[in-house]
Amino acid sequence: MSIWQEFFREPIIFLSFTGLAIVIGMCIFYAVYFYVKVAQSDSQ
Fold first, then answer.
1. Measured between alpha carbons, how far is 21 from 43 in angstroms, rounded to an integer?
2. Where are the transmembrane segments (predicted)?
3. What per-residue string of b and e applies to 12-22 under the rule 16 or more CB within 10 Å gives b?
4. Which terminus of the chain faces fewer neighbouring Cβ atoms within 10 Å, N or C?
């Protein structure tokens, strides 16, 4: 069985990877956000 078929057939796999992608995306966003804010405050 193809891994893509299994990924879209089983909702728990799809939801867990979707949730994981959202959490990782938020971590990357806030890491960049705080880095930019710290860099701006140092330059002032």
1. 33
2. 12-36
3. eeeeeeeeeee
4. C
Provide the whole-model pTM. 0.72
* Phi-psi map region of 9: left, alpha, beta (phi>0 left; psi -120 to 50 alpha): alpha
* Sequence letter at residue 13: I
CA dist., res. 13 & res. 44, Å (int): 47
- Each residue's pLDDT, cut to its tens digit, for the chain (44 residues) gives 688 888 888 899 989 999 999 999 999 999 999 999 999 988 77
